[in-house]
Write a structure and sequence with these properties.
7 helices, seven-stranded mixed β-sheet, single chain, eight-stranded mixed β-sheet, alpha+beta
Length: about 250
């Protein structure tokens, strides 16, 4: 086994591994590779030149501390239960520390992965509050924004000690979600028929019903900062690394 950055010839295998592990199709992966993928933020476990496992990260920050958001950790079916993921994670931890990152964030999908990452030293660090609602009251005044305006308003509305996700983070988000702003709120959301999946609602959470009225939808699921559902886990790479209090945009 060799652990390294991917070469050009590994890209088709990385795409196939992503699809096999997460079910996303060509359009999603085309958008990902156009906006977010960089060989410098990807590591692979290679066996005779074949990709056995892979992971990716985004550059994020908390305060002045550079951090990595690790996501899409996957092992090819033929190589599972053989230690490839463990070796890849351990190697990535050492690499990110050497590169100057102060800590690593990730968002586990379910109890089994939470337990697995706890074994690597990750601990829960943030939670989110989720709620569902129907359209009621007056329609919300709102407009679509681009990633630059979303980033600017987001910095103002984020709780102190939050993780800043900009650059390729927001460029990728905008390929599958709509970005909106209104008086006192900021929203990233996807529509599925008459349903709204709010990926992040910052500012005034009571805006939810009015947002649905404006969009003409019958149901909404919103995610806001607050106590409730455990969300991100954190591994400090330095003793003075700040522990984030809010992490909102998960791409797993």
């Amino acid at each position: 086994m060799k652990i390294d950055y991917p070469a050009t010839e590994h890209i088709p295998q990385l795409r196939a591994l992503w699809t096999a592990s997460f079910g996303d199709g060509d359009q999603f992966l085309d958008n990902f590779h156009a906006t977010a993928f960089s060989p410098a933020r990807c590591r692979c476990a290679l066996v005779d030149g074949d990709v056995a496992a892979a992971l990716y990260w985004f550059d994020v920050s908390c305060g002045d501390a550079p951090m990595a958001y690790v996501y899409a950790v996957a092992t090819a079916p033929a190589y599972r239960e053989q230690g490839f993921c463990h070796a890849l994670m351990e190697d990535t931890h050492l690499l990110l520390k050497k590169l100057g990152y102060h800590g690593i964030l990730l968002v586990p999908d379910g109890d089994a992965l939470t337990k697995m990452y706890a074994g690597f030293g990750y601990t829960p660090c943030t939670s989110v509050k989720e709620f569902v609602c129907a359209p009621t009251g007056d329609p919300a005044t709102m407009h679509r924004v681009d990633t630059a305006e979303y980033a600017r308003i987001r910095r103002r509305l984020l709780p102190a000690g939050s993780v800043i996700q900009e650059g390729e983070n927001l460029a990728f988000l905008a390929t599958y979600a709509e970005l909106y702003a209104g008086p006192g709120f900021l929203l990233a959301a996807c529509q599925d028929g008459d349903r709204l999946q709010g990926l992040e609602l910052l500012g005034d959470p009571t805006a939810g019903p009015g947002i649905l009225q404006t969009l003409g939808l019958t149901y909404g699921n919103f995610r806001t900062p607050g106590a409730g559902t455990p969300f991100a886990m954190f591994l400090p790479l330095r003793e003075d690394a700040p522990v984030p209090v809010y992490f909102g945009l998960a791409f797993d």
